[in-house]
Amino acid sequence: MTVNSEMVKTIVLNIAKTIEENKQYLTDLDAAIGDGDHGSNLNKGFLKAEEKLNSSEFNTIGDILKAVATTLISNVGGASGPLYGTFFLKAGTFAKDMKEMDFKDFCNMFEAGVEGVKMRGKSDINEKTMLDVLIPALKSYKASLDNDEECKDAFKKAVDIAKERVEFTKTIIATKGRASYLGERSLGHIDPGAMSSFYIVEAIYLYFKGEN
Length: 212
Ligand code: ADP
Ligand code: MG
Fold this sequence. Notes:
Elements lengths: L2 E2 H17 L1 H11 L4 H18 L5 H15 L4 H15 L5 E2 L1 H19 L9 H16 L4 H18 L23 H18 L3
The chain binds adenosine-5'-diphosphate and magnesium ion.
């Protein structure tokens, strides 16, 4: 598999599209255990990112991801703006001068993004956040890389795991972010950030499956 700058741009535009399509659901999830702005926050940021990607020329994968990062950081209110912003910033820093990359680079780039979220959020797996999807997805990508699996299979496996992990967030108590104020009352609800991270992992899969 080779991913080039144009493909990365298309994948980001597809992420923007799926966030827009699901913004009401994300906001409803956030209304249950937060303040009901996750869908509108992210939609606003990704629409701006879309505008930016469509209005300028970008050379490298790093340039594209950094443009997305700065747009998210300055346009998305709430916790998720800086967190997803950091994800794209760290991924973009990894991909700095690259015009194309292979699946191994993709895994390392994704890892750089996940490590960025952990650092910025002072958070880890099992705290009922986006990391409950991002960390297992990363683990799945890496296992597929180690097993020399076809990329299409690798992206599909990660989506299946991400879906399970979204459901899993219902069973745990939030210890980070706004939902942590609810303590046990956060049980039984899907974490909105885990859901939006699922849409990102899914958009990557669908691109390579050739549906988008
Ligand atoms: P806010 O909570 O400020 O309104 P959003 O509603 O946009 O921000 O995003 C909430 C999501 O952000 C949560 O569902 C969770 O997944 C994620 N989140 C919050 N705090 C953290 C953290 N410290 N680390 C990782 N993710 C976090
Ligand atoms: Mg919120």
